[in-house]
Structure formats: C-alpha cells, structure tokens
Amino acid sequence: MLEIKNLVVQIEDNRILNGLNLTVNDGEVAAIMGPNGSGKSTLSYVIAGKEDYEVLDGEILLDGQNLLEMEADERAAAGVFLAFQYPLEIPGVGTMTFLKACLNAQRKARGEDELSTPDFIRAVNGAADRLEINKEMLKRALNVGFSGGEKKRMEILQMALLQPKFCVLDETDSGLDIDALRIVSEGVNALRAQGRSFLVITHYQRLLNHIVPDTVHVMSRGQIVKTGGKELALELEASGYAEYRAGEAA
Amino acid sequence: MPAVQETIDRVRSIDLDQYKYGFETTIEMEKSEKGISEDVVRFISAKKNEPDWLLQWRLDAYRRWLTMKEPEWARVEYDKVDYNDIYYYAAPKRKGPESLDEIDPEILKTYEKLGIPLREVEVLEGIAPERRVAVDAVFDSVSVATTFKKELEKAGVIFMPISEAVREHPELVKKYLGSVVPVTDNFFATLNSAVFSDGSFVYIPPGVRCPMELSTYFRINERDTGQFERTLIIADKGSYVSYLEGCTAPKRDDNQLHAAVVELVALDDAEIKYSTVQNWYPGDNEGRGGIYNFVTKRGDCRGARSKISWTQVETGSAITWKYPSCILRGDDSRGEFYSIAVSNGMQQVDSGTKMIHLGKNTTSRIISKGISAGRSQNTYRGLVSAHKKAKNARNFTNCDSLLIGDQCGAHTVPYIESKNASAVFEHEATTSKISEDQKFYCQQRGLSEEEATALIVNGFVRDVLQQLPMEFAVEAQKLISISLEGSVG
Questions:
Q1: Of A71, A114, A158, the CB nearest to B445
Q2: In this complex, do B462 and A92 lie within 8 Å of one another by their Cβ atoms?
Q3: Which residues of A79-96 are buried (b: 16+ CB within 10 A; e: fewer)?
Q4: How far apart are the C-alpha atoms of A177 and A152, rounded to whole Å?
Q5: Helical H runs in A86-213?
Q6: Does A101 contact B458 at a Cβ distance shorter than 8 Å?
Q7: Phi-psi region of B147 (alpha: psi -120 to 50; beta: other; left: phi over 0)
Q8: Which of A173-177, A223-227, B18-22 has the least mean pLDDT?
C-alpha cells in the first residue's frame, strides 16, 4: 500500500528525516512510536503534502503512485487522510458545508458524481451516531469552540465520511479522556478493512490497547530504528525511550 | 450550503480575463458637450423638461461647487480628475419604451450577457414566485425599462426614474430632494446635485409593506461619461421597503468618475433596507483605467422607531470613497451598516459609515469585513457620535480585516464622539491573515488552494452575507470569489 524509500527531509536547514524507510501493507495497522523530536509529526505532514518541508531525497509511493509529485488536495483525492494532532478551526464555515465541499471535491477529482444531499446527510448522520457526536455540533462552524475531544471525534467522522485508503493518525490520543479515547478508537477500528491501511503515531502504549496494531516501529533521529509486533509497544512502555534517546544525545 | 459549491464551480469556470463583465455595447448615445458650465447644467435640465425650480436648484449647486475643493483626507491616491474632460450627460437615443419589445435589442443583449433577468416573463406566464424583484434598469443615465410597475401601483408604491417623478410627483420630490444630503454637503454631492442625470425614486405610502424587493442595475457604458446617479427613497409612516442595487461596468482604459448620491428618509415606524453589490471595473493589474467611485449615501431616520439598514458588498472600482450613513433623529430609531469590502490588485478602498445619534434611545450596529489582497489598500473609516440629547445611545461596532498575501494593507480609523454621558459605544477590531495551516487543513481534505481560500473567505464574511436577500447573497459570494482570483499561489 504505502512504501517510503530513503526519505530525507529538512525544514529551514534542520535535517528532520534521515533516509527513512517504511512499508505499510494493505489492511495493515502500523504504529510509530518514539520520543519527542524524533520526526514523527514531520513524517505525517510530508506524507500529506504540507509545503513547509523540503524533501531532499527519497520517494513515497501509494500503490505505486509517487505522492511527492502531487499537491496536498491531489493526495487527498488519491486516498491519503491525515487526522491532525491539532485540528484547525474555520470560523464562519458550517461543519456540514465543509464536509460536503470536501467530499464532493474529492469525488470530482476522481471523476465520480457528487453525492446527493439525502445520501450525504445519511452518511454524516450515521457516522455521527457511531462516534456519539451531538447533531448540534454539526450545525456549528467547523471546530470552532469544540473541546479537544470533540475535535478529535470530528477528525474521525471526516475519515469515516471520506473513506480514505491510507490514514495517518497523528497523536490522536493526545488530550482525550478515557471515554473519548474509547469512542475514537472504536471509530477507527470500525474502519479497519481490506483496502485500507493505518499509520498510528503515538507516544503512549495506551492508545494501542484500543487500536491494536499489526506492527510497531520505533522512530529516532529521523529513522525507523526498530520494528516488531504489538508486544514491542509494551516493552517500550516498560523501558521508556532511554536507549533511543541516548543515541540522540551522542 | 449549495452556494459554496456554486462559488467553487464559478471559480473553476472563470477564464483568464478576471473582469468578466468587461465588454462594451455599441449603441448611439446623445451627449452634452464635454466639460461643465452653466450651459451644460441648463442643457441637462432642458433635456429632461425639468421645472424651473429644479433648474435653479441645479444652478445653485453648480455655483456652490465652483467654490469647493476636492477632499483629500481619504487614504487614497489618484491622478487629479479633469472635470472639464468629462461628458456630463449621455442618453441612449431611443427613449421611453412601453414594453420590453421596444427596448433596443442591443441593450437587452447586454443585460443577457450580465445574466440580469428582466422578469416580465414570470408575470406573463402567471408564475408567482414568493419574492419578486422589480427591476428599474438604468442603462447609463436614462432608465429604459421598468417592470412590475402595475403591481407596485396596486400597492400604491411609486417606483420610477427620478426624472419622471419630478414631473409626476413634484410635491414629493421637492419636499425630500436634498433634505438628507444638502446641496452644500460635500464636493462630490454638490457636483452631483448640479449635473445628476437620473436614478430611482421610491415612495412607500403609510402602512404599506412593499410587495417585492426593488432592484436597480446600473451600468456605465459610454466612454468618458461621468455617471451621476441620484436616488431618493421615502418610506412613509409604518411602511417597509427593501431595495437592491447592483452594478457592473464595461472594461475601458480611462479613469471614470462616478459620483452618486443616495438619500433615504424613514418616517415613524418605517424601515428601509438598502443593499448594494458593487462590481465596477477595478482597473488592470497596474491599476489603470478603473472607476473612481465617490459616493454619498445617507439615510435619515426622521421618525420615531424608524430603522435604516445599509448592506454593501464592494468588490470593484479603482478608488472607493463611500460612507453610507444614518442620522438617528427619531427617538428609538435604529441604524445598521453591514459591509464587505474586497480589494485586490491596485485597488484602494476608503469606506465605512457614520452613525449620528441625535434622538433618545437610538441604537446602531456596524459590522465591517475588509478583505485585502494583491497590492491593494483597504481602509475602514467610521464615525459614531452621540449628541447632547441622545440619551441612552447605543452602538456596537465590529471591524475585521483579513489579509491575503503580504503586499496589501488594511487600516481601521474609527472616530468616536460622545456629548452625552449615558451613551454606550463598543468597538471591536481584528486583523488576521489566512493561515497556511488553515489552508493546508482544507487541502488535506481535498479542496484546492483556491477553493480553500474561497471557503475561508466565505466564512469570514458570513455575518454580512446573511444580511443580504438570498439571490443577492449568492451573487455576492460569486463576486467575492471572482475578485480574489489570482490572489493565491
């Protein structure tokens, strides 16, 4: 599904990713863990196509398509979805308006018909119910005045609606209480399917109790330094990132 | 909201020429000689078969104007206008059509290109839409088409070119003309008083709710023709009217002067809602050839509990100098000003409002949204004042500016004067930039950069767009997107 080869990225002369290699298979849930500053968020932004980053080398292939040659909106239409760590507020733009504009923009880019309004409303309501999102929230401006937990649920609602192929969750667990964590995780688990893969970025093992990964990668200094099964997350929880951090200090 | 999708589609479909309405029609015009003089003033008055009192009124204005200086306090820069290098009167040669059939097909074609419907058909077909729009179409200076006239007559509403009203309702015109914007008011208004060509006249009788929204479309067509519209709207006791004004103009190279005057009078318990979408030619990328728009718009809440509301969407003109204002004379009267001013390229906007609180318990509300892009300069200039007798005057002002790119400017110049200690005036102002993070977020969800900008801008102006009648809101949204074309990326 996703293949990253020798990715080298810098921002304002600071090298963040140093020849990163990563493969995520079809239907796989891969977790990336690592200490602060190891480049996890940068990786998620570069996959999604944020402009501030300078890619010096390497490639990112989604089903063979080179993402680095595409604009952010083209990548979205190709099936890349990033659940933001800090979702943005768009004042004055109704949530439903935003969702419909995005969904139809993607469908148009793929040469599909726009979704009819009844179908659209049905799809949104269904997803909102599963995520225990109050319908009143959908009438408000996107993310404006939402709590941290509400924003994260809104991210997952968008994911459910847009039906992406490759989902990146950037520290989706941050700022969530136990109940919100359960709801969000169930939302994600419901979307696990053949033809859809996940890259789950987190500091903490606790998210991985809810979204159980197939593989766990440890990231340090802009590279994947260790790969294992879900038990690797438990080991990290016990030992901490000390051994990886030591490398950074050197 | 489908309007947003429509905006997006519209942006996609725009061709390279940003100013879509830039075309000229070739209809023979009848002109006065170039320049301004007493003779020209007499020529205009004679052309319109005006009574002597109006000729004298014009001449008084002209003589006064000769002693006045062009104001220089606005934050706009432009080459001096040569007032003797302008035609002050131009009218299509054919006059006074009785029906649409009699209208020059060239003129109808122009309207068609603009997408302006002359909705006669709806009536003929017996279609009764919930909200009709009566169009008194102003083509250059002389009104050439009036529809829905009969239905308005039934309600007792008078809606006609002001030149006609001078003949048919002289007592009303004489009583109210110049009563809100005096002949001596300011340089441009005084010039207008001397040479005004035509415009709309509206009178709503006591207790009548005007059965449809009234709409006038202005176009500036003849090369070098100054346009001096004069509009007078009177809402008698307990009446209501909503008036829509929309403007587009053909593309041209020379700067064009436009100095309109709009006067509104609201008597006891009356309400006037005046909405404008202004889309005159803003000039090319270097700022050449755009319209100079020096407008005096003022409403007088003359009666108790009267209300006047201005809503404007300003996207065009090279220079905009415009302050639609309310004089809150009647006790418990209310003034509102909702504005979206978009500037791009080399446009200069100096616009705002004045809320003059004279009566007791008067309230006013100002919501201004300025959007600057390109190398444009966008200034909000507003005055809120409470006079001695204005007990318990209340004002709320909110001025937000949005910057797109880093070569434009936004300025807010609020003046607040209070001579009554019980007055409460609130002022809020913000300036923001469309953040790259917001744009990226939208793009990550599948919107292109332009779509993302349009969406964010639509959100920014939403409070004001909501004040516009539906059909106008959609048009305004399209215009805003068109105006900001090429400002991203």
A1: A158
A2: yes
A3: bbbbbbbebbbbbbbbbb
A4: 11
A5: 95-109, 117-130, 135-139, 148-162, 178-191, 205-210
A6: no
A7: beta
A8: B18-22
**Per mean pLDDT, which of A93-107, B74-88, B281-295 is the most reliable?**
A93-107
Cβ contacts (< 8 Å) between A88 and chain B: which residues? Answer: 435, 437-438, 441
Helices (H), A5-115: 40-48, 72-78, 95-109
CA B7 to chain centre: 22
CB-based contact A101 B447, cutoff 8 Å:
yes
Candidates B279, B409, B256, B251; CA nearest to B340 is B279
CB neighbour burial string for B355-375, b if at least 16 within 10 angstroms, e if fewer: bbbbbbbbbbbbbbbbbbbbb
Query: pLDDT tens, B436-467?
Result: 899 999 999 999 998 898 899 989 998 888 88
Residue with tokens 């100002």: B366
First-to-final CA distance of chain B: 26
Number of inter-chain CB pairs under 8 A, A vs B: 90
Q: Is the dihedral of CA A11, A14, A16, A18 positive or negative?
A: positive
A236 close to A33: Cβ distance less than 8 angstroms? yes
Q: Which of B5, B446, B461 sits opposite A76 (nearest CB)?
A: B446
Looking at residues B83-101, what average pLDDT do you find? 63
Could you tell me if A213 and A200 are in contact, meaning their C-beta atoms sit under 8 angstroms apart? yes
Condensed to tens digits (0 to 9), the pLDDT of residues B189-218 reads 999 999 998 888 999 999 999 988 887 554
- What is the CA angle A119-A123-A124, rounded to 5? 120
For B266, other C-beta atoms within 10 Å of its C-beta total 33
pTM above threshold 0.80: no
Phi and psi at B439, nearest 5°, equal -65, -45
User: What is the pLDDT, as a whole number, of residue B218?
Assistant: 46
How far is the C-alpha of B106 from the C-alpha of B94, rounded, in Å? 12
Q: Which phi and psi (to 5°) does residue B394 adopt?
A: -130, 135
Quick one: average pLDDT of B301-322? 93
d(CA A239, CA A228) in angstroms, rounded, equals 15
Crossing angle of the two packed helices B449-465 and A95-109, in degrees rounded to 10: 150
Q: Please, what is the Cα angle at B10 between B6 and B13, to 5 degrees?
A: 140
Which of A50, A94, A141 lies closest to B440 in CB terms?
Answer: A50
Is B253 a residue whose pLDDT tops 50? no
Question: Do residue A162 and residue B436 have CB atoms under 8 angstroms apart?
Answer: no
CB B348 within 8 Å of CB B76: yes
3-state secondary structure of B390: coil
DSSP 8-class letter at A67: G
Provide CB contacts within 8 A for B382, sequence distance 6+: B323, B337, B352, B353, B354, B355, B366, B368, B397, B399, B413, B414, B415
Pairing between β-strand A65-66 and β-strand A80-83 as defined by DSSP bridges? unpaired
Give, in order, the Cα–Cα distances in Å from B466 to each of B311, B460, B463. 10, 12, 6
Dist. CA B310–CA B312, nearest whole Å: 7
Residues of A whose CB is below 8 A from B433: none
